[in-house]
Amino acid sequence: MGKSPARDPWTHLTGLTPARIALGRAGPALPTREVLALSLAHAQARDAVHAPFEGDAVAAGLRALGHVTVQVVSAAPDRATYLRRPDLGRKLSDAGRTALEAAEPHGTDLVLVVADGLSSAAVHAHAVALVAALAPYVDRAAWSLGPVVIATQARVALGDEIGEILGASMVALLVGERPGLSSPDSLGVYLTHGPQVGRTDAERNCISNIRADGLSYDEAAFKLAWHVAEARRLGLTGLALKDESDLVSLTAGSLAPRPAV
Amino acid sequence: MGYRQVVGTTTWTFPDLKDLLAKASPLRSGDALAGLSASCAQENVAAKLALADVPLKALLDQPLVPYETDEVTRLICDSHDAAAFAPLASLTAGEFRDVLLAQTTTPAVLARLAPGITPEMAAAVSKLMRNQDLILAASKCRVTTKFRNTIGLPGTLAVRLQPNHPTDDPAGITASVLDGLMYGCGDAVIGVNPASDSLAATGELLRLLDGLIGRFEIPTQACVLAHVTTSLELIERGAPVDLVFQSIAGTQAANASFGVNLALLKEGREAALSLKRGTVGDNVMYFETGQGSALSAGTHHGVDQQTLEARAYGVARAFDPLLVNTVVGFIGPEYLYDGKQIIRAGLEDHFCGKLLGAPLGCDVCYTNHAEADQDDIDTLLTLLATAGVTFVMGVPGGDDVMLNYQSTSFHDALYVRELLGLKRAPEFEAWLARLKITGGDGRLLPPTASHPLLTGA
Q1: Nearest one of B89, B60, B82, B85 to B73, comparing CA atoms
Q2: What pLDDT score was predicted for residue A209?
Q3: Residues near A59 by beta carbon (within 8 Å), at least 6 away in sequence
Q4: Which positions ≥6 away from A98 have C-beta within 8 Å?
Q5: Which of B411, B422, B445, B450 to mutate to test the interface with A (most CBs of A within 10 A)?
Q6: What is the C-alpha to C-alpha distance for residues B125 and B310, in angstroms, rounded to an integer?
Q7: Could you give the residue ranges of the DSSP H alpha helices within B144-292?
């Protein structure tokens, strides 16, 4: 008595997949250590969804990189409403609209939006670093950048209204993706050409899975810059812009699609 | 025509049948999002009171989505079996509930009635039923289907082995398949959600699964859950397709948003039948559904999400599927907010599907932004198993590392077998015993590193 159940005798297969295999069992059930491991992973994912978004800290990080920032909130006043009403997360609050109308400059090539989405943790961990990694590409191509907009209780389509008010040619929205147990802090980027209210997801391109065990900042910045250049050339984003950046094969499969926020 | 219900000094009015059905539905976030919910608890019950008096015949005669513009409505109306309906023709929705629960309404009676019951009738009566009613009535509905084994026999529960991998890596998927088989899972299907919908990747996965099934002579079937057009193209190219998969919904427009229509589903079924890969039967379709999919696509026609879900089973049963899976908690909290709503929806879906004669299984699951956790999974799994659910998912450790949500695990299936004495599909159960994965009582034997499944891998 008192010994915890052993792993199954095929632990040599565990290196082939991130799936939870060869766990062993206590009678029919999971051993205590596995129940608690799953519970901890779920707690991390839950906290990633519900942790308050630290917009001020993100803004400070972006200003340190030399960016002008504007903070806005969507029409969803709190997290509970945000989760129930995706439509409100796609609209600006009145105060947010006013702030953007007053912001400078308007009419730039590109506007970056940093949105909490479904994982504040992802934004806290990766957004400033990704913007920093993008800077050399923006400088080289001499794209004009608008203020970086930091958006709370935001869904992907909020970028359409933001881009429209700022008169931007294109919006790249960095957003916390729906957290999985093995990836509570994954960041995605949605690029939309000609942003205006009413754009559909079929008119965007997505770069997904930016996190420690996924796409690196350098890889993601390269892919984003490639997409911006292609979108400028074609005059559009979406299904007609196929990802042919050569990095795709190097990052083999770290680009699995995730549900949009 | 409108409906009225007087409660005390208040008169509640409902302009039409779809409004009445929506307001009678137990509260869920998706109907609130669509603006269809009852305004308060009393209006919800007033709607139930009015709905209880609605004749089943009215639910047949007054389509919620127009016949002229919706092929799902046409399918439901045109395939309705008036002779099977005759014993129910004079009943109201409330009386129908009483009949379903009567001890004289046996599995044989319910099987005879099924072709006379429309999805709208099933949905209406379900709104008048408590969870225990949904469980008891569903437990009397028997739906048996066959391909390489026999699924849905009384006292059995099958498991879909779901060995997903974030990059469709063949070795990674094989590792999860072996893990599941060693845990006695996989009789419903070995079914992979591909990360990529490309023809080449899907074809490679089909050959991988076919190779495993052939090599170990496993009496089960494989499926790669790609779009029906992908399966059709692969069948054309000679790929080993056992089951044709498709996500379906309850309106023509919602199906169009999935890129399918009834003719395409028929084409998929006929192509799969032409391969004659089944050994004990020819149920060749695998469908997935879920409340909220029509609203999500903006194609709900003002009808509540549970009624539309029942209509999806009306679509499914027309194609004699092997498996129909309601993926109940995957869609997210804007449609089913918390554990309570997910549990209720899972029981409704299972009841409605079974009542209509579809082989309903359930992906008992939740996402990390829903107010739900493993305890809710345990609760719904246990309730559905007592209700006789046809199959559930088996995901390693309950953590799907490709789709990023939590479902039931191989261990969960063992738990519910241990608790309720549920067996696997008989052909699969015999195979497990022959390979000494299980003993004579169906319980797992202690695994050894030298087991043929492991050394042959």
Answers
A1: B60
A2: 87
A3: A69, A71, A150
A4: none
A5: B411
A6: 11
A7: 170-182, 199-215, 228-236, 252-257, 262-275
Please measure the distance between the N-terminal and C-terminal CA atoms of chain B and give it in whole angstroms. Answer: 65
Provide the angle, in degrees to the nearest 10, between the axes of the packed helices B199-215 and B170-182. Answer: 40
What span, in angstroms and rounded, lies between the C-alpha atoms of B71 and B117? Answer: 18
Summarize the confidence of residues B252-264 as an average pLDDT: 94
Contact (CB<8Å) B368/A25:
no
- The residue type of A246 is D
Instruction: Out of B398, B402, B418, name the one closest to residue A256 (CB).
Output: B402
Amino acid letter at B72?
V
Tell me whether A43 touches chain B (CB under 8 Å).
no
Contacts with B14 (C-beta within 8 Å, 6 or more apart), sequence order: B2, B3, B4, B5, B20, B23, B47, B50
Hey, are the CB atoms on B418 and A38 less than 8 Å from each other? no
Q: How many C-beta neighbours within 10 Å does residue A36 have?
A: 11
Mean pLDDT on A26-46: 96
Q: What Rg do the C-alpha atoms of chain A give, in angstroms?
A: 20
Average per-residue pLDDT for chain A: 91
Is B29 within 8 Å of A13 when comparing Cβ atoms? no
Among all residues of chain B, which has the CA nearest to that of A30? B411
Q: What is the pLDDT of residue A168?
A: 98
Split at pLDDT 50, 70, 90, the class of B340 is very high
The one-character DSSP state at B18 is H
Which chain B residues have a beta carbon less than 8 Å from that of A252?
Answer: 167
Residue B170 CA to its chain's centroid (Å): 28
Please, what is the average pLDDT of chain B?
Answer: 96
Question: What does the pLDDT look like over B387-435, one tens digit per residue?
Answer: 999 999 999 999 999 898 999 999 999 999 999 999 999 999 999 999 9
Q: What is the largest CA-CA distance in chain B?
A: 76
pLDDT band at A239 (very low <50, low <70, confident <90, very high): confident
B56-70: b (≥16 Cβ within 10 Å) or e: bebbbeebbbeeeeb
Per-residue pLDDT at A1: 61
CB B367 to CB A46 under 8 A? no
Cα three-residue angle B36-B37-B40, rounded to 5 degrees = 145
Q: Following DSSP, what letter does each residue of A137-171 receive, concatenated?
A: HHHHHT--B-PEEEEES--TTHHHHHHHHTT-SEE
Chain centroid to Cα B122, Å, comes to 15
Asked whether the predicted pLDDT for residue A103 surpasses 60, the reply is yes
What's phi and psi for B237, nearest 5 deg? -90, 5
The whole-number pLDDT of residue A254 equals 36
> Are the Cβ atoms of A16 and B172 closer than 8 angstroms?
yes
**How many Cβ pairs within 8 Å bridge chains A and B?**
147
B176–A17 C-beta distance less than 8 A: yes
For the entire predicted model, the pTM comes to 0.91
Share of chain B above pLDDT 90, in %: 95
Instruction: Tell me which residues of chain B, numbers 33 to 92, contact chain A at a CB-CB cutoff of 8 Å.
Output: 33
Chain B hits for A45, CB-CB cut-off 8 Å, are: 368
pLDDT at residue A249 is higher than 70: no
Residue B215: count other Cβ atoms within 10 Å of its Cβ: 12
- ipTM of this complex: 0.95
Evaluate the omega torsion of the peptide bond into residue A9 and state whether it is cis, within 30 degrees of 0: no
